[in-house]
Amino acid sequence: MSTDQQPRANNGVFRTKTVEQSIRDTEEPEHALRKSLSAWDLTVFGVGVIIGTGIFVLTGKVAKENAGPATALAFVAAGIVCALAALCYAEFASTVPVAGSAYTFAYASIGELPAWIIGWDLVLEFALGTAVVAVGWSGYVRSLMDNIDWHLPASLQGPDVAGGTFDILAFVLVLVLTVVLVLGMKLSARITALVVAIKVTVVMIVIVAGLFFIVGDNYKPFIPPAVTPEGGGSNWDSPLVQLIFGYEPTNFGVMGIFTAASVVFFAFIGFDVVATAAEETKLPQRDMPRGILGSLLICTVLYVAVALVVTGMQHYTELSVSAPLADAFKAAGHPFYAGVISFGAAVGLTTVCLILLLGQTRVFFAMSRDGLLPRFFSKTHPRFRTPYRPTILLGVIIAIVAGFTSINELATLVNIGTLFAFVVVAVGVMVLRRTRPDLPRAFRTPWVPVLPILSIAASVWLMLNLPGETWFRFAVWMVIGIVVYFLYGRGHSRLGREGQAAKY
Ligand SMILES: NC(=[NH2+])NCCC[C@H](N)C(=O)O
């Protein structure tokens, strides 16, 4: 390989892979992906991965525990944070149209170690994201089973249910999907479109049918006054800001809206996944920004509406935490609607789960293509031609985690990981304008550096509203990642080896 295009390749941990080099890698025939997606495909794909457990489950949980009717405001706040980040993602996806999302982008702009950190972070985001969605799915399946008076023993309903310990449904779902991926069964574009249609229809039913059951009194008070949680005192489940500034920990009130925003943020994650499809897009320069911003906008409008309707249908203190949208209709005396909603949610969440599991193999693929993870992980199955090794390994781990962990713990960890990726991408956009002003940018983030800086501040603010415990778990995961990099990736990196070879 020639060395002319590698002015900054060196052997430090900040060695960068040039944008040209990243694109060239994707053009090697044995690694190339087909370019077939349009802006519309991306928007459908985006809405398909975005609408999931966040709106179907977490809405009930945060309304009940953190924000009451003001949950709608929490969705607005989280949506704003995402819109800022989306503008940065749109620039990078249109400048570096390569698989691997924030990982690839960081590799081209900031350097290998930051890229690795982001890749490692994305693995967390996707793996635990799968687990959260599986747990959410299980709640709706149980609500559906309730309708036909069929009940699982409490102990098999998962840790979110009183008396539960193991979520058998979530566990089985992840294992089944793992087998599907190993066998290489693909979601055809038609099925995906159908599922997205079902999901959006169900959300519309909630909004439109729900309007008739709104009781004005349920909105009073719109922002419930702050209360100290049982047990009081500062503890690790309190938001980090409260721990740092030594406030008395509280739920509800204005701070409660931010706590809620940092949780429902989960509902918006996915537009960044759209960016991972850049390499498969026909006209990424034009269509990436359209797909990313379009799907985000559609979801924000739907979410705010759902939050307003659901907190209007039932007093927030009464909402169900495992299947709030369906259960609100049950409470209103309409089990038929409840059944339709549970059915739609169950179908819709299955594909989100599948896409996330699949997305994870893409990130692994990009990292192992670069030599930062062992080639072992990119060996495909001789018959099914799928990366079966990481699929099985991770599938089993995720199934177990989904079975034993509560949805809140999982979701907040996904959120902190994703917000962290947002910060890195915003930094990357600014760095690349400095170092590579010459690159063609079909979409330019407006007001650089003001907007990326605002995006960083907003993301950090939501991160600070996550519990101290979440920060601790995230730190542990990151430390493990850094150790793996220095023990393995640094020495095996393809970029590093090429840099070495070029010297002699
Ligand atoms: N990249 C991710 N971790 N996505 C998780 C899926 C989140 C999706 N918005 C949901 O509400 O279910």
TrEMBL record:
Gene Ontology cellular component terms for the protein in this record: membrane
A Pfam family assignment: AA_permease_2
Classification via InterPro entries: AA/rel_permease1
Segments passing through the bilayer: 37-58, 70-92, 98-115, 122-141, 161-184, 191-215, 252-271, 292-316, 336-359, 388-407, 413-432, 444-464, 470-488
Top-level taxon in the UniProt lineage: Bacteria
Example GO molecular function: amino acid transmembrane transporter activity
Keyword check for Cell wall biogenesis/degradation: no
Key words of the record: Membrane, Transmembrane, Transmembrane helix, Transport
Broad class of where this protein is predominantly found: membrane
Membrane topology per record: Multi-pass membrane protein
Localization of this protein: Membrane
Protein name, entry field: Putative cationic amino acid transporter
Organism name: Streptomyces venezuelae (strain ATCC 10712 / CBS 650.69 / DSM 40230 / JCM 4526 / NBRC 13096 / PD 04745)
Organism lineage: Bacteria, Bacillati, Actinomycetota, Actinomycetes, Kitasatosporales
